[in-house]
Design goal:
mainly alpha; 3-stranded mixed beta sheet; 257 residues; single chain
Length: 257
């Protein structure tokens, strides 16, 4: 019997470079940095409390998206997912390895994001973690720094562990490649669509981002290049993701504040 074709987007397998560094160490490093960031935000009274309407909104959207993460990365089943909101004018959001999500109030307030658009941002950032783009970046750094001997000693992870420690502090500031961003766009569209959020909101989101960029380049855009090509790529993916959205159970209109 022929294999049934998978519905949704196709972005291929994970990079072999990601296997050069242990996922556990990167996730532990990310968890430590995330905790430090939250502690600093709390100290500055910038960390939203659990009753904050926008935080409740983010967590409600995340609860719908996260169940669809496991198909993209089996490790996600055991991640201790967290979603937090930080008071800042930065137009930024991220998901660190291990499922540590943060949004800044600036991206919600300045762009006046709808729930569908929030889901596009969240899906995109979760996709980076699921596709292990940070691990891949560190793997490439390790391969470059340790030379050809590393590639012939796949089991000798002692040196690689040192590299993870050396570069672990960069988890929050890693710059992803255009290929990484394209992957995250497509996987994020699918995650959000399966969760019942309209993937066409990805197009309206990037139009808002482009408009915001005309005044002052927001931090999120500096590492997420926008433009007509990106919107065109999303439009090309609609035949793969809109049917998933049409079949999905939609969130209640009263589910988020």
């Amino acid at each position: 019997m022929p294999a049934v074709a998978r519905e949704g987007v196709d972005v291929g397998g994970n990079s072999a470079f990601s296997k050069l560094v242990p996922a556990e160490e990167i996730e532990q490093s990310a968890a430590q940095q995330y905790a430090q960031m939250l502690a600093k935000a709390d100290q500055q009274r910038a960390l939203a409390g659990k009753e904050h309407p926008q935080l409740q909104r983010l967590r409600a959207i995340a609860r719908r998206i996260i169940p669809y993460a496991n198909e993209w990365n089996p490790r996600a089943r055991n991640w201790q997912w967290e979603v937090n909101l930080i008071g800042s004018k930065q137009i930024n959001a991220f998901c660190m390895p291990g499922g540590k999500i943060a949004f800044y109030t600036g991206i919600l307030d300045t762009l006046k994001l709808t729930d569908d658009e929030v889901a596009m941002v969240m899906g995109h950032e979760i996709a980076h973690a699921l596709r292990e783009h940070a691990r891949e970046r560190m793997g490439k750094t390790a391969a470059t720094g340790l030379g050809a001997n590393l590639l012939s000693q796949v089991l000798g992870l002692g040196q690689v562990g040192q590299t993870v420690t050396q570069y672990g502090a960069q988890v929050l500031t890693l710059k992803f490649s255009r290929e990484d961003e394209s992957e995250a766009d497509l996987v994020g569209l699918e995650l959000a669509a399966r969760a019942g959020y309209d993937p066409r909101a990805g197009i309206s989101l990037w139009r808002k981002m482009s408009a915001a960029n005309k005044n002052a380049p927001p931090q999120w855009l500096s590492t997420h290049p926008a433009g007509d090509t990106r919107i065109a790529d999303m439009e090309a993916a609609m035949p793969q993701v809109v049917p998933l959205y049409n079949k999905a159970q939609k969130p209640s209109k009263n589910a988020t504040p």
